[in-house]
């Protein structure tokens, strides 16, 4: 089947062929052989592969050992997730077995805390596996924890200590997560970095 000739080529230089999946235009030069498309032996040229999805080249995110800052950020996120699970389980058990003022509210609060614990736990797992997507949920977790810490600091009880601890963990985690070494280890390009 003959197609249209691209501009700049005369019909003797262009050869249009229709394959099963696509149309292929080959520019030929008798002295140098085919260019742009197929190799002389009918196979693919040097830069074209027969794979539909070639394997990505390894990036900085997978080279070398995991940085200590990344491990520390993952540990802090995991610690927050475990604290939410423990608090949620306590509220759930107290709501089901104990005699709180409002059992439905205790059960709902316990289930909510357990579900909220999934975000930092998944983020911690992703950080340990050096997945770039994991930094977003980890940062969101820390930002959500800061108002909770502030509320705990306003209480007139033992909750003040928990507020101080939560604020310290959240701020330390945020510092670790936005650190250049952590960002590089996760394979995230920053606006000032050179694209290669």
Explain this structure:
This protein is mostly helical. It has helices at about 70-95, 105-115, 120-130, 135-155, 160-175, 180-185, and strands spanning about 15-20, 25-30, 35. The protein contains six helices and three strands. A three-stranded antiparallel β-sheet has the order 1-2-3, with no helix packed on it. A hairpin with a 4-residue loop joins strand 1 and strand 2 (about 25-30). Residues about 15-25 and about 55-60 have low confidence and may be disordered.
Distance between the termini: 41 Å
Main sheet: which strands, in order across? 1-2-3
Number of helices: 6
List unreliable stretches of 5+ residues.
14-26, 56-60
Largest sheet: 3 strands, antiparallel
Gyration radius, to the nearest Å?
A: 29 Å
Could you give the order of the helices and strands?
EEEHHHHHH
Global mean pLDDT: 78
What percent of the residues sit in helical stretches (DSSP H or I)? 40-55%
SS strand fraction: 5-15%
Structural class: mainly alpha
- The number of strands is 3
Shape descriptor? elongated
């Amino acid at each position: 089947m003959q197609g249209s000739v691209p501009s700049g080529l005369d019909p003797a230089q262009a050869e249009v062929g229709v394959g099963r999946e696509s149309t292929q235009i080959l520019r030929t030069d008798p002295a140098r052989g085919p260019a742009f498309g197929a190799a002389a032996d009918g196979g693919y040229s040097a830069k074209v592969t027969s794979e539909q999805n070639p394997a990505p080249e390894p990036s900085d995110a997978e080279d070398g050992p995991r940085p200590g800052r990344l491990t520390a950020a993952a540990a802090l996120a995991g610690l927050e997730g475990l604290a939410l699970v423990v608090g949620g389980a306590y509220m759930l058990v107290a709501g089901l077995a104990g005699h709180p003022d409002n059992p439905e509210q205790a059960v709902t609060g316990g289930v909510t805390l357990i579900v909220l614990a999934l975000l930092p736990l998944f983020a911690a797992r992703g950080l340990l596996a050096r997945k770039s997507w994991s930094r977003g949920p980890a940062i969101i977790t820390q930002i959500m924890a800061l108002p909770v810490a502030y509320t705990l600091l306003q209480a007139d009880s033992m909750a003040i200590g928990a507020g101080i601890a939560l604020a310290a963990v959240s701020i330390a985690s945020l510092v670790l997560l936005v650190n250049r070494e952590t960002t590089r280890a996760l394979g995230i390009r920053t606006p000032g970095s050179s694209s290669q």
